[in-house]
Amino acid sequence: MSKFQGGKRPFFPARKPKAPPPPPPGLPARRRACDLVEAVLLRRRPLDEALEEPTDLSPLDRALARKIAATTLRRLGSIDRLLAERLAKGLPEGLPRLETVLRTAACQILFLDVPDYAAVDTAVRMVEANKKTQGFAGLTNAVLRGLARDREADLASLDPLDDLAPWLRERWIAAYGEATTRAMAAAVIHEPPLDLTVKADPAGWAQRLGGSLLPTGSVRLLPDGAVPDLGGFEDGAWWVQDAAAALPARLLGDVTGLAVADLCAAPGGKTAQLASAGARVTAVDRNARRLERLAENMARLKLDVTIRAVDALQLDGTYDAILLDAPCTATGTLRGHPDVMHLKSAADVDGLARLQARLLDRLADLLKPGGRAVYCTCSLEPDEGEAQIAALLAREQRLVVDPITPDEFPGIADFVTPAGHLRTLPSHWPHDEPRMAGLDGFFAARLKRIA
Ligand SMILES: C[S@@+](CC[C@H](N)C(=O)[O-])C[C@H]1O[C@@H](n2cnc3c(N)ncnc32)[C@H](O)[C@@H]1O
């Protein structure tokens, strides 16, 4: 006999609504990777800026999302070529998310150490979860499985030149020739190592941190954890700075006691070098937010500098020495900032070259007669480097080039040009382990005011 007789309705206690099931592991990181890629390619935002948005992802998922997004941007040319070979009819118009899911999943299958099934499964789920794309789940599955199956042959067919954005490839070939461009393209497909500039005892710090001492004195590491967890960070014994970026400030020579203006200073890598070499540094930048980071960095490093939030074009006074690390297209930093080649264009080179010229003219006024200056950019564009200096010398009689010599300090001989400038390329310093190779592309010229 049933318990519920007499026509009475059984009483069921009200149930809490069921929480939606948690997403399968790995899905939030893949979704975030798609958002990051779209922030760059569709919304034209720098990757670093998009990475700063708050998320509720775990640190591991955040790191995976960043790696997928950065590698997709780095290898986009190859990824798109291989996808196009499998999509005979192309993709339908107006479904950018479908394209992003395919690109990021292809990136994982081809270039990252993640299981193929995880890349395929999360991609198919993302496609199924969206009404507009759910009809393409079968296609997504088939294309990605095909990529996984043919991976070895596909990888062997790749040419790193395809990964350079076309505008940049064209300009690099014109400036450096095809062989050097190919070597640079092969270098920038790798994530860079972590380079540190240390205040003192670089050999000791290389040993303590398990890194290598580079010929120019930087310490190179392949860390597997967060930078602030490394020994010496809290105490301000070192700061992160690419080995090429560490060269220009040293070209000013002995700056002990000199009044040095660092004209485009934030976040302060070169300011820190000058201050720890004993200069009285005025760190100038027009970006107040970036100057806050400079101030934090100087506090950690226990270095005392004067900070001026002002446009360098409006700066007054005179200085014994000047460093002008001018704003530029930053095409030399592609290893760490692959978004640059997708966000910048030839028009940016022209616009930035005009600003650099104005800053150089201001530098001539601010430098005391007899003083030294270094102009540098992290660009591989001659218009922002060699050609900029040639044009300056033609219009400014008070400045001459003070040639850099190959033996000035160890490790720079290969970087000194016949004109006495410094030019580093990402393909310099080859290494059997590609992640230990290379350095950013930098240009630096040393100038002297003679009148
Ligand atoms: C290449 S970054 C400088 C990196 C820095 N020297 C370092 O080593 O950490 C260029 C800087 O120039 C600043 N900048 C751009 N135009 C400027 C101007 N007209 N006056 C002052 N700063 C400017 C930007 O805000 C940016 O922080």
Automatic annotation (TrEMBL):
Span of domain SAM-dependent MTase RsmB/NOP-type: 156-450
Annotated active site: C378
Gene Ontology BP, a term: RNA methylation
Highest taxon of the lineage: Bacteria
MF term (GO), any: RNA binding
Ranges for region Disordered: 1-30
PROSITE patterns in UniProt: SAM_MT_RSMB_NOP
Alphabetical keyword list: Methyltransferase, RNA-binding, S-adenosyl-L-methionine, Transferase
CDD domains in the cross-refs: AdoMet_MTases (cd02440)
Family: Belongs to the class I-like SAM-binding methyltransferase superfamily. RsmB/NOP family.
Protein name, per record: 16S rRNA (Cytosine967-C5)-methyltransferase
